[in-house]
From TrEMBL:
Protein name in the entry: DUF421 domain-containing protein
InterPro entries cross-referenced by the UniProt entry: DUF421, UPF0702_alpha/beta_dom_sf, YetF_N
Origin species: Clostridium bovifaecis
Location relative to the cell: Cell membrane
Main location: membrane
Transmembrane stretches, start-end: 6-25, 37-56, 62-82
Domain YetF C-terminal, chain residue ranges per copy: 85-218
Superkingdom as given in the UniProt entry: Bacteria
Length: 227
């Protein structure tokens, strides 16, 4: 009986810890792991450790651990806000980009400073489809650890503007059908009607909405669907 009660207690604590962690991560904002600064990573690890302790350590009450989680979350939100408003503070917390290649020349001191060797640099360049050093004009190590590469002008792909070709605005397509159901508010936002959607689908010989998994409409009025 004691074992069952103990197991139930751990399960309940784990559920509560998960909900707390979910709420805190939502409040602190979305950010990809690759975009996290060292400070973000440290705070995330700390909050994760405290939450794990909340779930497993039955000798401590929820109320004794919860304040520390809230404090870390509040500090993270405040510091993130300050970073948005202050360039100087953002440089201190996140750092700044480091030039690894300048005017086609590898900056050896920068490699030493960032603790990268030539093999590491070449791996980073290949990830950006730059396989030859001779093709690179500039390469910068960003604060998030990614490398930005600018190829030399004669090695860059040709664009329509280079050939004076006029292109049309594409915009962002909107989802209008999801799992066989029309998203009515999206139609209203785009000034479209249900009958217009059905007519477009009929042009593609589709008359049953339940057979349409997803459908998008672009700014030109074209509809793309997935059955």
């Amino acid at each position: 009986m004691i074992t069952i009660l103990a197991s139930t207690n751990i399960i309940m604590r784990a559920i509560f810890a998960y909900l707390v962690l979910f709420a805190l991560t939502r409040i602190m904002g979305k950010r990809e792991i690759s975009q996290m600064s060292f400070f973000d990573y440290t705070v995330g690890i700390t909050i994760g450790s405290i939450t794990a302790n909340l779930a497993l350590d039955r000798t401590q009450s929820f109320l004794s651990i919860l304040p520390s989680l809230v404090v870390f979350a509040i500090f993270q939100i405040i510091l993130s806000y300050i970073s948005l408003k202050s360039v100087t503070f953002r440089r201190i917390v996140d750092g700044s980009a480091t030039i690894l290649i300048k005017n086609g020349k590898v900056m050896e001191k920068a490699l030493l400073k960032t603790r990268l060797n030539m093999d590491d640099l070449m791996i980073k360049l290949r990830e950006k489809n730059a396989f030859r050093l001779a093709d690179v004009e500039f390469a910068l190590l960003e604060p998030d650890g990614q490398v930005s590469v600018l190829l030399k002008s004669n090695k860059q792909p040709v664009t329509p503007s280079d050939m004076n070709i006029q292109t049309q605005y594409m915009g962002l397509p909107d989802m209008v059908i999801e799992e066989g159901r029309i998203i009515e508010n999206r139609l209203r936002e785009k000034g479209l009607t249900r009958s217009w959607i059905m007519a477009k689908l009929a042009e593609q010989e589709i008359y049953d909405l339940s057979k349409v998994m997803y459908a998008q409409v672009d700014t030109s009025g074209n509809i793309y669907r997935l059955l």
